[in-house]
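STRUCTURE:
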């Protein structure tokens, strides 16, 4: 939906007699996800037709977004800010370019031997405060919920789709 104005602009330029056009836009897939495409449009001379070819570039776009996040994090960390400022910054600098809707920072409470959700961030598109209300201040014992499972194992975890993770409801 956000891509529509740009796509319309490209087609209007073609209709006005413009030559070959290249642009990027997403398509909605049958499974409900979006895929990025690089489109090349060439008008057919003397006819009201055009030749349109597209190449899927979702992987390239993901890599670009990761590089934006990595650069932002590296640049910020090199400035030597304190923990509160760094946490606030990271909770936005990582999710925004990656297209995430929310993020949380979990801290260990050694005395109680639990993880505590110390800070959250959510995209403006989410219901105001919904993520924060659900997680801020929540506690997880070792091994329960995704953040605590990572804490207990001492290893990072990659979850391609959080909806499929059995611990999502508890984390």
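SEQUENCE:
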């Amino acid at each position: 939906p956000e891509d529509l104005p740009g796509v319309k602009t490209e087609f209007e330029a073609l209709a006005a007699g413009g030559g070959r056009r290249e642009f990027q836009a997403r398509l909605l897939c049958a499974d409900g996800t979006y895929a990025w495409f690089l489109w090349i449009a060439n008008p057919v001379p003397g006819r009201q037709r055009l030749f349109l070819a597209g190449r899927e570039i979702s992987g390239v776009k993901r890599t670009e977004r990761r590089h934006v996040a990595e650069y932002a994090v590296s640049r910020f960390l090199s400035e030597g800010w304190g923990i509160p400022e760094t946490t606030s910054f990271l909770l936005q600098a990582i999710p925004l370019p990656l297209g995430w809707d929310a993020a949380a920072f979990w801290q260990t409470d050694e005395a109680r031997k639990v993880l505590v959700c110390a800070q959250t961030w959510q995209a403006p598109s989410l219901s105001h405060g919904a993520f924060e209300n659900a997680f801020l201040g929540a506690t997880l014992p070792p091994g329960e919920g995704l953040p605590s499972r990572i804490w207990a194992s001492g290893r990072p975890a990659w979850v391609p789709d959080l909806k499929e993770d059995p611990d999502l409801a508890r984390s």
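REMARK: The chain has a mean pLDDT of 84.
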